Amino acid sequence: MRLRLLLYVAIVTLQQVRIEANDLTPSCPQPPTLMNGHFRPLKTDFPYGSVVFYKCDPGYRLEGSRKLGCIAAGKWDGKTPRCLQEKDNGKSTCRISETPANGRVFPSLGITVNIGKRVMYKCRRGYKLIGNSQTICVAGNRLREPVPHCKRVSGGCTIPTSIKFGKLSPNSGKLRYGEKVRARCNRGYVLKGSMENTCLYNGSISNRPPRCTRVSSQRLSAARSLNFGQSENPLPQRRTQVLCRLPSRSIKNGIVISPVDSVREGDIISYKCDKGYAIEGSDTSTCFKSGNFWPRPPVCVRRNRKSSRKAICNLYAFFNGRMTTSRKNANFLKVGEVARFLCNAGYKLMGYKKTICGREGKLLPGGAPHCVRYCAAPRTEENGIVYGIENGIVFAGKRVFFDCKVGYKLIGWDHTVCRSNGTYEHEPPLCVRYCCKKPVISVFGRMIENHEYYVKGEMVIFKCVEGYELVGSYASVCHTSGQFVPNPPVCRRIGAQHVIPTSCEIGKIDPAVKIEPDRKVFAIGSLAAFSCEATSELHGPNTAVCELDGRFHVTLPKCLAIRKKCSLPKLEEDVTVDPSHTEYDPGAEVKFSCGKNFLKIDGPVSGKCRDNGEFDIKRMPRCALSWSLLALLG
């Protein structure tokens, strides 16, 4: 029994020690603040093991470690970093004053951006960007990188050099924008990389050139012995398992040449006519993903000894669209025959929708067209702006940029890219109207991420310079009323001994201003509203808040009489007014004159528009006849 009692006491004592140990878990005070910088995360408790990260305001650089940790001793390890101002000429913005020739800059030319903001460049179609595509505004009122330039791309893309152990189709010359070059490997090799590469509008090829790697002899023999319809793929390196069935080993008056019996996607077979016959059509066909060959097999026609072979135009596969000819299922056109092309939905035809086979065996005008994927123009907010749209569409791979009108803030991505499936990478942003002006803070206070205007719900974080502490909330939120709630705090010198005020007194104010509620003294945090009579208008803020330091942080308003515009009464026909308008602003002055046949103005020679909307003219002027005119009339 005694043993059980001792064991019970020991367990209770151990639990008590654990509870006390948990209660004594060390914690650190608020991390040291930085002048011209801030830390994250913002919270009230920092237990042992907590880590804070420091960051400097734009235009300042961090000196020291960017993070501090709370150690078991209940203090922050390491030395507090500092924010040092970058060398600057006193300005904190960059003006976009230059744009590359044959290119564009975002934001637009003449716009001023703050330090740390990004500036992007883009070339027109047919030009290639030489230099950096983007830069940022840094201290010294300058952009970090020089403005790039746009170099004209002559005639599309140069076809890459031939690949070892393989072939390219076409294998020489130039590609037009949007055209593709296809690669295939020799027998016993497999393709590593993209089988198709496209000529982009900047004159470059879409992917790196592929390469052909040798297949082991065992895998190659397995490929040769494969039967049609078998689903197993002995060459896992190949990206596809599509097989095309050979038409036959021969065509009428000719033969089919194929490296293997099992022809896979991308493989090419060729045709050869017997002696005395000529090919009419394409002499090669390619195995496509559908399991069919294109172009269709040609025909071998007997040569005419008296005349050479007539020119024809070969028709190749037309992707993402439909091609129609006068002869059904034709794989070539005779001279004078016509082919028509139509793209699927979501694709745009690059070239002519109607071509004719010319005498030289070429499709006219401009060769065979092709279809390019595009996205419809992205939707924008009523107060939004979008750059980079051409004729209401955006081609796949192209980027568009978003911006908002003056007085609105962009919320979301400032750019997006049209993807190959016809959708955009990012949703369009929102344009939210600014609601609050920058709050007025104490002389020794600072705001993190300082802006001139803020949108509804946006938060402002406050801090004090070294040697001062916050009195009030460290954060305020922009309210629909146009004010920040709660009121911004004040900064008080650490250790200062003084009484915190409990009220504010409105000082000298225009007697015509009405105050609601009607009193001179307001409690801390209360709101005073100002207004004028119907015949006057208020100049200045219409509200003010009694701050924690016992002051109204606004310039008190005043009432000014509503100034009306003036209209001149009807004058005599011979009287001239300078300047001549239908209405005049208060304070505007006019002068009266007469023609050369008159002696002088009878009445005032000038008048001034008063605030009540009337000219200070007692009687209207008129023109008196001159003596010379009287003599002529006499």
Structure description:
The structure is a single chain. The chain is mainly beta. Among the domains are: 22-85, Complement Module, domain 1, CATH 2.10.70.10; 93-152, Complement Module, domain 1; 377-433, Complement Module, domain 1 (Ribbon), CATH 2.10.70; 499-562, Complement Module, domain 1 (Ribbon); 576-633, Complement Module, domain 1 (Ribbon). 6% of the residues lie in helices and 39% in strands. It contains 3 helices and 64 strands. Strands 24-25-27-29-30 form a 5-stranded antiparallel sheet, with no helix packed on it. Residues 12-24 and 216-240 have low confidence and may be disordered.
What is the residue-averaged pLDDT? Answer: 76
- Number of helix segments? 3
Oligomer: single chain
| CATH hierarchy class name of the domain at 22-85 | Mainly Beta
CATH topology description of the domain at 22-85? Complement Module, domain 1
What fraction of residues sit in β-strands? 35-45%
Overall 3D form: flat
> Largest beta sheet, briefly?
5 strands, antiparallel
**What is the end-to-end distance?**
152 Å
Could you list the spans in which at least 5 consecutive residues all have pLDDT below 50? 12-24, 216-240
Radius of gyration: 42 Å
The CATH architecture of the domain at 22-85 can be given as: Ribbon
Q: Looking across the biggest beta sheet, what order are the strands in?
A: 24-25-27-29-30
Output the structural class.
Answer: mainly beta
